[in-house]
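Data deposition worksheet. Section B asks for the primary sequence of the deposited chain exactly as it was used as input, without tags or linkers unless they were present during the calculation. Section C holds the resulting structure in token form. Section D is free text for depositor observations; keep each observation to a single sentence. Incomplete worksheets are returned to the depositor.
Section A, Depositor: J.P.
Section B:
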Amino acid sequence: MLKKDVRVTFENKLAELLLRESVNNPFIKQTLTKISELVKAEILLPLMQAARKPQFSDMPIEFQNAITNLAKLHSNTRQQYGALLRHKYSDYASILSDMANVRELLTLMHDALTVKNQWQEDDVIKLLACITHLSFSYVEHLPSLRKNEQEFKKLYDLLWPSPCEIAVRVSREELGQGFQVTSKLGLRALEKDLTLRTPPMAASTIHYDSGKSFFGAISMLERLKIILRDFEKLTFNLNINEPEEKSNAQQAYQRFLENLTAIFGKTFTDKLINGEINKENLYTIAQSFTPSTIKLATRENQLLIASLSGTTARILITVCHLGGFKDSKNFSRFDKAQILSNACAIFFMLAGHHSLMEVAAIYNNLIDYFMFNKVKTLPAKFFSKKHSFIPLENYLPYHKGTVASFLHPHYRDNILQSIKDFSIEKSLI
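Section C:
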């Protein structure tokens, strides 16, 4: 069995190699240029237009929400890898206090999304950060920019992680470790690299808020322990006599049950209420709710940092919905989707947000979306006679658990050549 620390070192190295390849490979550069221009035109420019208003409050509320989130991500508030203004603004409110500062942020994002003839690794990271953050705006804040809501919902439903794939994430705060940040990039979170976050932190303080620092466990068992603990506390609070506090306790209790039902179903909630879920049977129940993706990753000793990547889902949903994976003849292009997914892996592995598997699983969901909803847009080569006796999924570019299956053929051999002597099981390469 591969040791976890070897896998961590391997994926960190892989991300570095992919980043270096992104700087030098014209095919990657061409693909990211087209995607960044699309994101710029369809999301950023409408935000820049709205920001011409004299007052922040003059903008539509959804644009206010989107820009507020961008200010948090690019100031030192959220301490994000690739943030453009964290050196200048320690708090997002400083950006929002003056429309000139808002316009400064959006202009810098515009510049970051404009691919240079000679670009460096830092340029790639800033571009990927801006695509990531504007995709969040598109999915979470800007429904007025979405032209086909029905198709958007299909994409979202198929690409977004399941409720249980989200529920297995257990934060360090929930484990009693407090809100942590890390001083080191990459996937490994050594205790000496973590420190309690004490906002507001000075703009000169270089720490990062990442998946590895935020989440302390990927475990359905730990999630159910927390649910049991919280249920006991909420149930105890129902005995409060003071009318207003009792009303608040009842509302909190009801919200808790509604959230549980949305994730685990009514049967689970009823059993919890009836006392049928307890410490003795918690392990068995946890096994029944642990998603197959998490079980498979655990069995294959894949890295789990923050479970399946919802942020990757937002990026792929956004670019797909905007038509970024189509060619000039309106055919769907897996190569664009694969290159962008590889780029997501670069960014999220280096930032310490997600492992390769957590990104690749979402990329597989995108291929499923094309197969279930857009099969007529696939190029004719996928239906040629030479493939007639082979299951379609066998020659589609799914991630099949290895690095080689995830990487695009245009640069796969370059990367594999660089890692061939690395101390890792060959089956994973």
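Section D:
The longest strand covers residues 215-218.
The chain is about 60% helix and 5% strand.
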